[in-house]
């Protein structure tokens, strides 16, 4: 059956560009500009989807993005919203959530069992026995749901742009266009967005059988074209409102993050369905959906229709249906008294108007593919009950429903707008708007064409006033006449199937049951019934849910309140949210050398560092062991240019460090280094490092690789407070650093260094400024990975020169580079903890055994007061070194495995590794204080559940360069 | 120099001579050396023909020689003698010039700031560019400069050229 109408003015389809596509295996033809739904409906198809839970046949409801009756898949993408996605040549589509096809869905029998599956049935029915819940969960998930995720979905980059404008207007309908034109006269930059493919909002379809709307629209759009300062974006939706007028605009190919000086929300309103039995049958649709079909896509919604209305909108819809050639069998008006100004026009056209009547139920055709007839009866508005003693049947194949509106106020709610319920329009409208946020049009309770035009101008004039632009004040009058929304358009029926939320198959009785169960608060009712929790997020159901709850509780609607509408406004693909992902990695100036030397890299903080250097014929673990042994037995070299490096200049530099770190630095000698520990105000360890004094007024300090940015930021923050006479200079990138470690380190370095490196001249903890390989350098005698080690700091541009020179000088000693993995083992053998690895966001120096670095009696340091309080309380855990009491076949614990004492958790492992030097596993673990006794033991639970014995040891595990152990 | 077909040109100017200093006396010290400094923080200006002076906040400066290194060498030499309230800031920047007709589009993807044609020229922005901290200056709507830590050099250049390539086929010269 072909439902396509003759060419109509303003239609969105291009008849010169026919398209072929398939749906459920059958070939169809549409036109460019058709949505998938409009093309299928034009071809005579009725069942285009199956409902979420009961697998009921579904057709068009809103023909916008306000319901998900029709979701399809093209086998690559899923949950494609057929109502709003344009059909493309060659598309091969299937309906989602069916078994065996949309028409012969094998799960349609679930509809017959619906009486046994009210909302929340699974909470009760499958709650016990608990062991069976996974089984039922699997059954439910397979029976109910949406499309299946394609895990092979191709990765396409969705772009994210950042843009700015003076005024963002959301919604290019009557009010939005009017606001844009009024504001544009002052020359400000305006961006006007609309989610539809074309601008105009309801002017594109709500015509009431004449051409006035389209003429108004044409004039508005013509005028818009003459304002170069208006950027009109269609097919773009404003997805959410964030602080300072920051609004993501979702395009088909990405997101534009728009920052505006002011925002006008002119998003209109969602039409709400009246509720009666079988109001979800294919062929039963919202009045605006029927109008969209006619005016945008030139498709006749049905042949013989009944209009069921509870407001004046139904009369406009009836005139549009007539104009499209639909036979209107009757207009059933729920209201007994209200008189529509268009009633006479319909009566002149011999349309039967039944006032004070309702549709009691829609009767399906034998194959349940559509409507056969409607049963109507008188309706008592005061009691909300139908008079079933006077049932009348009218044959038809379609129903257009008009009951009222819900404001599309999601962005307003997110902007913090307080809303009030306006009884003149029976709708929530903005009450108090934050600065820079304005509302206009239907969302502001203005419904007549003239008042919407005026309200747009009024909002624009307020914007201009806020932006200090000259503007004539415009006032828009409140709504007058019949209320656009009915307070209670619900027709109870003993056999139910009168749906409120089409996404989730929620019926009128479900709300009554929920209230009886005690879920009589809107937030609780939402969660129990799941109303508004489907993909439509309540666009077509929340307002009806609020009205029902108000009726149940006998309260005015404003006392019920509404739920929060969170971003994003429509479901948005994750790829859009991800955008073009940025993964910044810092590389040292030695990176290329590492790469050539077959380094395998890992990310450490912001850096890419060599984990180890692979060697042909050796496994990863063996390569790491070789690197460890080379340090212990000869000499090794690691790139530590990733360390944070900061210079503190100025007369107050020592005072600054006294305050920032826990130790003492005022009396630190020039040419010496000290271990430094930084805490936060709560006494929690932030970071540690080395502070070297190069002059009275110059300190050079290092911070750990992962924390260096944070340390510098904290230093700047505290300096802002303290205002000391210092200069902080972050030289992390400027300086490269190389650690030469092992028994032969001095021998190798001496070949290149002009200064004496003898134990007497350059002892542990010293720093010298000298020249190495003709390059100025700062050399620090350190002991992190080995008792004999030197950290050489040179300008990063010179680091490669020094590195290569060291490799050559160390060749006789079989020097080799080592990576982070070997470094972690070497430092563990030395018994050193790593901040952020062996500490967490709650660890204090008492627990980590770092009180040696705290000078508690100095006047002040960050965290001092907290530490004083902590010291008065019993310690809860201690970091202890341990050796594994290893036996063959035993599972080796891993980091984060739990320490178990008397069946309870008594701590956790923070570091563990096999020591090639000791040839056994060693580690660090937090244990309860009673277990932290040297020589004592505790148990660690491994991943396989077995308990492994560990013995508390002493550090360093390795006491000399040749690998003697101190157990 | 990398360029997309008449849309984006990315020039690496890291080789230009550069010197940094900070401290409460830094502005007066530079003026005393006949170097013209921007009067307001977060601004830049040329001092003489061959030097770009960026004021990075109230008391920090970055000086870059554009055609010669006379000024930067003079400052470097002077900084070797300590002066109260003046601290040298060793610079190791990756410095890029981004130009071409699609420059604003590129920045719209990598930077949240309003760099539109109406935005101010010769201001210094300390901001995030493609997820990293950077100094940004706008000299014209199709002429921007970026300075960032040299350790991000490969990342930034790769990222910028990847985005530029997505605009149009790339020519690398």
Task: Give a structural overview.
The complex is a heterodimer of chains A (967) and B (173). By secondary structure, chain A is an alpha+beta fold. Helix content of chain A is 23%, strand content 28%. The radius of gyration of chain A is 37 Å and the shape is elongated. Residues 962-967 of chain A have low confidence and may be disordered. With 173 residues, chain B is α+β, with helices and mostly antiparallel strands. Chain B folds into two domains: 2-14 and 92-172, Probable tRNA modification gtpase trme, domain 1 (Gyrase A, domain 2, 2-Layer Sandwich), CATH 3.30.1360.120; 18-89, Alpha-Beta Plaits (2-Layer Sandwich), CATH 3.30.70. Chain B contains four helices and twelve strands, in the order E-E-E-H-E-E-E-H-E-E-H-E-E-E-H-E. A seven-stranded antiparallel β-sheet of chain B has the order 9-10-11-8-2-1-12, with helices on one face. The longest helix of chain B is centred in the last third of the chain and has 15 residues, at 153-167. Chain B is elongated, with a radius of gyration of 16 Å. The mean pLDDT of chain B is 90. Chain A binds chain B through residues 157, 159-164, 189, 257, 259, 580, 582-589, 591, 607, 647, 649-650, 727, 729, 731-735, 795-797, and chain B through 22-23, 87-92, 105, 108-109, 111-114, 116, 118, 130-132, 149-156, 159, 163, 166.
Question: In short, what is this structure?
Answer:
With 967 residues, chain A is of the alpha+beta class. Chain A is built from 24 helices and 48 strands. With 173 residues, chain B is an alpha+beta fold.
Essential attributes:
heterodimer, A: 967 residues, alpha+beta, Ubiquitin-like (UB roll), FAD/NAD(P)-binding domain, 7 domains, 7-stranded mixed beta sheet, 6-stranded mixed beta sheet, 24 helices, 48 strands, 23% helix, B: 173 residues, Gyrase A, domain 2, Alpha-Beta Plaits, 2 domains, 7-stranded antiparallel beta sheet, 5-stranded antiparallel beta sheet, 12 strands, elongated
């Amino acid at each position: 059956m072909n439902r396509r109408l003759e060419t109509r003015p303003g239609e969105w389809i291009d008849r010169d560009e026919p398209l072929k596509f398939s749906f459920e295996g059958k070939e169809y033809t549409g036109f460019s500009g058709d949505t998938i739904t409009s093309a299928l409906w034009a071809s005579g198809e009725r069942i285009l989807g199956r409902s979420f839970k009961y697998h009921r046949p579904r057709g068009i409801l809103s023909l916008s993005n306000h319901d998900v009756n029709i979701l399809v898949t093209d086998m690559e993408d899923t949950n494609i919203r057929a109502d709003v996605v344009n059909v493309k040549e060659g598309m091969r589509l299937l309906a989602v959530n069916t078994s065996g096809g949309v028409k012969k869905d094998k799960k349609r029998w679930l509809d017959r069992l619906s009486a046994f599956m009210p909302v929340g049935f699974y909470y009760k029915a499958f709650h016990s026995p608990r062991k069976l819940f996974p089984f039922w969960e699997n059954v439910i998930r397979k029976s109910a749901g949406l499309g299946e995720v394609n895990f092979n979905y191709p990765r396409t980059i969705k772009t994210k742009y950042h843009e700015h404008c003076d005024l963002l207007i959301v919604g290019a309908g009557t009010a939005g266009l009017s606001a844009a034109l009024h504001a544009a006269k002052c020359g400000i930059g305006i961006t006007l967005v609309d989610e539809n493919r074309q601008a105009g909002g309801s002017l594109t379809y709500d015509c009431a059988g004449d051409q006035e709307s389209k003429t108004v629209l044409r004039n508005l759009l013509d005028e818009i074209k003459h304002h170069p300062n208006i950027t009109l974006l269609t097919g773009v939706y404003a997805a959410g409102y964030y602080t300072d007028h920051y609004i993501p605009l979702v395009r088909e190919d990405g997101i534009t993050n728009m920052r505006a000086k002011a925002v006008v929300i002119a998003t209109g309103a969602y039409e709400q369905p009246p509720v009666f039995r079988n109001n979800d049958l294919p062929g039963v649709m919202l009045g605006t959906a029927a109008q969209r079909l006619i005016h945008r896509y030139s498709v006749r919604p049905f042949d013989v229709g009944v209009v069921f209305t509870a407001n004046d909108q139904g009369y406009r819809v009836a005139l549009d249906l007539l104009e499209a050639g639909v036979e209107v069998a009757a207009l059933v008006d729920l209201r007994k008294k209200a008189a529509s100004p268009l009633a006479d026009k319909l009566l002149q056209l011999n349309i039967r108007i039944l006032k004070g009547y309702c549709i009691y139920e829609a009767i399906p055709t034998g194959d349940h593919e559509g409507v056969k007839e409607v049963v109507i009866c008188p309706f008592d508005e005061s009691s909300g009950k139908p008079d079933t003693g006077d049932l009348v049947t009218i044959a038809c194949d379609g129903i257009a429903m008009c009951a009222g509106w819900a404001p599309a106020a999601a962005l307003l709610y997110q902007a913090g707008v307080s809303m009030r319920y306006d009884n003149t329009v029976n709708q929530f409208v903005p009450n108090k708007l934050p600065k820079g946020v304005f509302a206009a049009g239907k969302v502001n309770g203005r419904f007549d064409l003239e008042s919407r035009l005026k309200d747009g101008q009024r909002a624009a004039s307020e914007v201009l006033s806020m932006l200090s632009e000259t503007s004539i004040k415009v006032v828009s009058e409140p709504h007058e006449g019949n209320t656009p929304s009915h307070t209670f358009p619900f027709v109870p029926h003993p056999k139910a199937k009168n749906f409120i939320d089409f996404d989730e198959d929620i019926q009128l009785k479900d709300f009554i049951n929920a209230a009886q169960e005690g879920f009589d608060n809107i937030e609780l009712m939402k969660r129990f019934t799941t109303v508004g929790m489907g993909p439509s997020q309540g666009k077509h159901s929340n307002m009806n849910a609020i009205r029902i709850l108000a009726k149940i509780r006998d309260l005015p609607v404003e006392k019920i309140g509404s739920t929060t509408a969170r971003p994003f406004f429509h479901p948005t693909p994750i790829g859009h949210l991800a955008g073009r992902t940025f993964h910044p990695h810092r590389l040292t100036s030695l990176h290329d050398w590492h790469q050539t030397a077959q380094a395998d890299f890992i990310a450490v903080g912001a850096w890419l560092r060599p984990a180890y250097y692979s060697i042909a014929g050796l496994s990863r673990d063996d390569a790491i062991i070789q690197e460890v042994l080379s340090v212990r037995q000869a000499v090794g070299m690691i790139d530590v240019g990733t360390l944070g490096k900061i210079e503190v200049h100025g007369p107050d530099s020592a005072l600054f460090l006294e305050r920032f770190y826990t130790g003492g630095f005022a009396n630190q000698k020039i040419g010496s280094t000290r271990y430094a520990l930084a805490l936060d105000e709560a006494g929690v360890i932030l970071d540690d490092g080395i502070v070297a004094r190069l002059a009275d007024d110059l300190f050079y300090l290092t911070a750990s690789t992962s924390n260096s940015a944070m340390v510098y930021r904290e230093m700047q923050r505290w300096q802002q407070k303290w205002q000391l006479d210092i200069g902080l200079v972050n030289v992390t990138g400027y300086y490269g650093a190389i650690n030469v470690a092992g028994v032969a380190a001095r021998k190798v370095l001496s070949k290149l260094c002009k200064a004496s490196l003898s134990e007497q001249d350059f002892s542990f903890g010293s720093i010298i400024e000298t020249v190495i390989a003709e390059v100025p350098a700062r050399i620090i005698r350190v002991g992190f990975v080995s008792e004999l080690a030197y950290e050489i700091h040179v300008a990063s541009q010179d680091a490669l020169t020094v590195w290569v020179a060291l490799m050559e000088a160390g060749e006789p000693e079989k020097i080799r580079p080592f990576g982070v993995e070997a470094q972690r083992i070497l430092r563990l053998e030395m018994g050193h903890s790593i901040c952020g690895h062996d500490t967490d966001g709650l660890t204090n120096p008492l627990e980590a055994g770092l009180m040696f670095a705290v000078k508690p009696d100095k006047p002040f340091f960050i965290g001092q007061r907290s530490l004083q309080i902590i010291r008065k309380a019993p310690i809860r855990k201690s970091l202890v070194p341990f050796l594994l009491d290893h036996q063959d076949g035993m599972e080796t614990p891993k980091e984060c495995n739990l320490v178990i004492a008397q069946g309870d958790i008594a701590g956790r492992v923070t570091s563990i590794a096999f020591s090639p030097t000791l040839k056994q596993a060693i580690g660090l673990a937090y244990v309860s204080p009673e277990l932290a006794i040297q020589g004592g033991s505790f148990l660690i639970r491994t991943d396989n559940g077995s308990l492994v014995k560990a013995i508390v040891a002493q550090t360093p595990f390795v006491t000399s360069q040749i690998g003697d152990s101190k157990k | 120099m990398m360029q997309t077909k008449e849309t984006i040109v990315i020039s690496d100017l890291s080789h230009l001579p550069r010197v940094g200093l900070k401290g409460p006396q830094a502005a007066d010290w530079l003026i005393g050396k006949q170097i013209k400094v921007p009067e307001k923080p977060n601004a830049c200006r040329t001092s003489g023909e061959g030097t770009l002076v960026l004021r990075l906040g109230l008391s920090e400066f970055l000086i870059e020689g554009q055609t010669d290194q006379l000024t930067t060498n003079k400052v470097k030499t002077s900084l070797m003698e300590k002066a109260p309230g003046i601290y040298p800031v060793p610079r190791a920047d990756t410095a890029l010039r981004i130009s071409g007709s699609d420059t604003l589009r590129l920045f719209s993807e990598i930077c949240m700031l309003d760099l539109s044609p109406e935005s101010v020229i010769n201001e210094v922005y300390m901001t995030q560019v493609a997820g990293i901290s950077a100094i940004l200056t706008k000299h014209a709507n199709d002429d921007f400069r970026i300075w960032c830590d040299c350790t991000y050099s490969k990342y930034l250049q790769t990222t910028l050229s990847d985005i530029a390539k997505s605009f149009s086929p790339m020519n690398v010269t």
